[in-house]
Design a protein that fits this description.
Layout lengths: L2 E7 L3 E8 L10 E8 L3 H9 L3 E6 L7 H10 L2 E3 L7 H7 L8 H27 L6 H10 L4 H9 L4 H102 E7 L15 E4 L6 H7 L3 E4 L13 E3 L5 E3 L2 E5 L5 H17 L3
Amino acid sequence: MLKLIVGIDPGVTVGLAIIGLVPPFGKNDLFIRTLSRKNFSKSEIIKEITKYGEPVIVCTDKKRASDLVRKIGSAFGSKIFLPKEDLEKKLKAKLTANYNPNNIHELDALASALYCFEHIHSKLIKIKNKVKNDIDKDRVIDFVIRHGFSVNKAINLASSRKNLKQKIVYHTIVKLRDKQLKEENEQLKENLSIVKTALERLKEENAYFLKEYERIKKDIENYVERKIERRTTSLLKQLSSLKKENKRLQNEIKRLKEKDNINARYEKIVYVKDMTKKHISPSIKNKIVYVERVNGNIKNMEKLGPKLIITPDKKAEFLITEMPLIIRKLHLKKIGEDYFVKKTDLDELQIKNWFVKWVKKYKERFK
């Protein structure tokens, strides 16, 4: 039966590489098959390997064998080959450069098998050079690689038929048991070291998290305190602002009430010092104008078309104009830049009487 090296990449998707040890054991003489499958069960893997031959070595690219690798090795009684350190990506790429695996899982499995092949290649060459054609090379490979015999011892065993089975079984059991105990002891030591390291790390993490908890707790307390302080300050500022706004509105209400009172009792008029162009403007159009003195040309006023002219200046009796003009002194009230008179002083009937008197006097001048 063809002797095999089987590389395994365990995981959800299992990668499998099968190398057949075909004389004369050159790299170009290898029989290679790679495959991968999701949820590849142990029984399915064993069935797949059995199609090609019998594995003398089961290997992986990690320095620690997974349960799957050990179980497959145990199922065939194969030797487990592990690298001293996990194989690096560059090395795996170099090992598989002349091959074309379908995915990373097959690449990892193939790299581990080829790395194992390079490790035992010198022994295979010795077997090729020393084993004669009448001796079963596959059996010699099995004795040397799987069971650990020297090449000469393996040749003697393969050529001897007497008590061969008993010798092999005894030698194999003793050697495998011794090796198994050593591996288990090393594994237990490694596991203990890992557990101790993990425990120390957990203690450090616990101390760190407790410290972080206290820091975060203090930060939250400080944040809440600052937040409350800022909120309180903001509310006090808003309260102060609202008080100012309330006072302003109260004053505005007072002013509006006063304005309404003025509008109810007073009439706005335009006040000018005299009739010169310097003191009059187009703003007097259709307005009641109070002229302090009648100095100037009355025509200046006529052009601008005021509604009514009121003046306390007696000289207005001698003015010739068709504009309504009343000679009367009024009490003016100044508010800001505006002038007002009591509406009672501008009572429509009184103005009418004054206007009639003015017209009468005006007509008398021209009789």
